């Protein structure tokens, strides 16, 4: 069995950063953007924070995807040989696809909000009474996606240990079979 420590590390660290950063921004940044007294400054605070996070998030997602592709390549024999491995892989790929889609769409929404720099808002995802309708609509959607992304990436974090337990069980079964056959 090939060692794939680098790929597994990229996969796990990238996912941890993706999850943790989006959760922290949902919990703290968007709410903290409501702190400035002027409603017009609130949007700028949220936009600045998200603009600073976006490149880090892109690197984290890239690391996760590169690591995942590497793990898949080094353990592709498991997909056909181990019961449940293909289903687990499809589950992980579906969650990854959903998280990527949610992240990409949230970024588009964020760009719509950020495009109008001199707009009053209540906080990063809550419109003020004077917020233009198109910005308010994007903020309403962002209010959902700010939680959807950590939920999806969190689900991926939960699935990973389950998959690792499958792998450990396979190794134990293979060892037992080798001992019995000799």
TL;DR?
The chain has 182 residues and is mostly helical. It is 82% helix and 3% strand.
Distinctive features:
182 residues, 82% helix, 2 strands, 3% strand, elongated, two-stranded antiparallel ribbon
What does this structure look like?
- The structure is a single chain.
- The chain is mainly α.
- It has one domain.
- It has 5 helices and 2 strands; from the N terminus they run ααααββα.
- The chain has helices at residues 5-32, 39-74, 77-81, 85-115, 133-181, and strands at 121-123, 126-127.
- The protein has a two-stranded antiparallel ribbon.
- α1 packs antiparallel against α5 and α4 (85-115) runs antiparallel to α5 (133-181).
- The chain is elongated.
- The two termini are 20 Å apart.
- The mean pLDDT is 88.
Query: How much beta, percentage-wise?
Result: under 5%
Strand segment tally: 2
Largest sheet, spatial ordering of strands: 1-2
Into how many domains do the coordinates divide? 1
Order of helices and strands: HHHHEEH
How many strands, what sense, and barrel or not for the largest sheet?
2 strands, antiparallel
Based on secondary structure, the structural category is mainly alpha
Number of helices: 5
CA-to-CA gap between the ends? 20 Å
Basic shape: elongated
| Mean model confidence by pLDDT | 88
Radius of gyration: 21 Å
Give unreliable regions as ranges. Answer: none
Helix percent band: over 70%
């Amino acid at each position: 069995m090939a060692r794939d420590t680098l790929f597994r590390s990229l996969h796990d660290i990238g996912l941890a950063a993706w999850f943790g950063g989006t959760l922290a921004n949902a919990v703290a940044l968007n709410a903290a953007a409501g702190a400035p007294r002027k409603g017009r400054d609130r949007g700028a605070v949220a936009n600045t924070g998200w603009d600073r996070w976006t490149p880090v998030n892109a690197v984290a997602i890239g690391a996760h995807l590169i690591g995942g592709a590497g793990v898949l390549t080094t353990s592709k024999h498991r997909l056909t040989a181990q019961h449940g491995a293909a289903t687990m892989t499809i589950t992980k790929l579906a969650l990854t696809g959903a998280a990527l889609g949610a992240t990409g769409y949230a970024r588009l929404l964020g760009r719509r909000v950020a495009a109008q720099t001199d707009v009053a808002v209540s906080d990063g995802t809550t419109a003020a009474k004077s917020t233009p309708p198109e910005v308010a609509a994007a903020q309403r959607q962002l209010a959902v996606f700010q939680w959807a992304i950590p939920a999806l990436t969190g689900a991926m974090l939960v699935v990973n240990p389950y998959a690792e337990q499958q792998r450990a069980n396979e190794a134990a079964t293979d060892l037992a079979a080798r001992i019995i056959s000799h």
